[in-house]
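Hello,

Following up on my earlier ticket. Below are the two sequence lines again, exactly as submitted.
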Amino acid sequence: MTAPALTGPPSEPEQPERATKSAEFAASADRRTRARRPVPLTGGLLLALLVLVPVAAGLGAYPIPTGDVLSSVLHRVGLGESGLDRVAESVLWNVRFPRIVLALLVGASLGCAGALMQGVFGNPLAEPGVIGVSSGAAVGAVAAIALGIDVLGAWTVPVFAFVTGLGTVLLVYAMARSGGRTEVVTLILTGIAVNAFALALIGLFLFFADTAAVNQITFWQLGSLSQATWPKVLAVLPCAVLGLALAPLYARRLDLLALGERPARHLGVDVERLRITLVLIVALLTAAAVSISGIVSFVGLVVPHLLRMAAGPGHRFLVPGSALLGALVLLAADLTARTVAAPAELPLGVLTALLGSPFFFWLLRRTRRRQGGWA
Amino acid sequence: MSRRRFPYVGALRGRPAPPPPARAGDVLAETESLRVRLGAREVLRGVDLAVRAGEVLALVGPNGAGKSTLLGALAADLPAAGGVVRIHGRPAAEWSAPELALRRAVLPQSAELSFPFPVADVVRMGRAPHAADPAVDDAVVAAAMAATEVGAFAARPFPALSGGERARVALARVLAQQAPLLLLDEPTAALDLRHQELVLRLCRERARAGDAVVVVLHDLGLAAAYAHRVAVLRGGRVAADGPPAEVFSEALLTEVYDQPVEVLPHPRTGTVLVTPKRSL
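Thanks for your patience. The regenerated structure is below:
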């Protein structure tokens, strides 16, 4: 499929007409193979979402046929048909749909943040937790619960989680920075130290909390979307939309960053600025998601991996694609969490970790076999 | 298809224009009593050097003499602790990253890649500083791959290549950048005999086309054969600077490398041959 080695005299790069046809063919043929995969993959992901959303809306303790779900949606947007009975309408629009939309937003945020994180760190093992978003958010949430802080009513825990999550990232970044530069290794090591400190704080709060608070804390940390309401959707929405809209703008620069910091700078990327911008976007996406859903692990880690295997490492597809696949995965996971052990509900974070970690292990082994290690 | 399909580097803030073509002899980069510190050590201790368009300048010298550091300073990677580095006539620190990317291209000592991009994509990354124009990009990338003989594995993932193949792909990326100042750090280190010659012939071609080429070399024979000018570094200073035939004297090289060296004319061409004195 590619041209054989070129043995002619070397040609001047600025004189394209002297380039051999075979190399041109190789270059354009390669671009075709690259361009071919993302399109059907995007289509497939969108199609899967279109199928899964009405199915998920129908399944549960109060089953609603998929056809009824669709006619209720059509009714609401004003396209004829009568609505369902009062109970079904209420279940659908006050319980199922907010939960589904929240799952999509949280999944898209986590998947996209994972792809950005791995790109920023040039490391396929990075995930948003590395820079302290999740543990920082957990400190805020746990503190609010354990100390019985109630200043913002039902919003206390999410707001505390969001603020401390974002604050922790800024702290990690500021501490890792010296002389106007941040080295990736320093950033990761600082993240480890801050994560450990956050865990200690959480332990301390747990130690002093009463039994009811301990239960609530444990439940929060396991991750769940069971408290989904439209106001919570609206709380996540601006952060998620902003982050998801900005992220693809940096795809090309993330590609260049794969060459390393200096080569990326040689190609015109302001690396330091790119990194702080992306860290902030990751923090925004993750803090918003985690503050509502609790800790949901492995989505940000595994989703970009899967897509990289399927469509290559180019971030132009990887970043938006990870948002789509993340939404799909989290919707499926949440559907499983609330139906597999009905009427009980599995904690979402437990489910994603339970399925995600062996799957990640399999990915590791497979990639290792194919590449002979991590390059 | 629109010409700007993707938000390329700088596209949001307006892309800087490429510099006008240089005339032979124009100084594209220069240092004046440049001092550079790495950690506590002063690696460069007062270097004066000019890099001119149309010229291949080889930096040679023993390990730790400051060759790569000097190259890094010329690339605007390392700040000056004293003195000044000027690139295209302006202090290095005053250029923005996108402006510099149109003026100098840098080949690092070792080529890394954190994700398995295919070779053609890696070479195409060299086009990032320029306004996206698929037709021009395709042609330039194809030409750069042909020149470095990497077309045969254009679709292979970069991490699957051998060291020498990676080095050539990295060089192809640097050529695709089409910057008038080329800074190459040991481009021949991982290459076989044929490709060492190929790379230095490419350097000469670029110089003939009007570019300035700075190349760090360990092989003094290659430097003597291909460089217009050689700067010998020793202990962070330029010990000698001039055409290889003048600079490469037995006395100087023996002293600089702390190793007895013989310099003799090639029996057929008369160019300088450098070989260590061996007593076997």
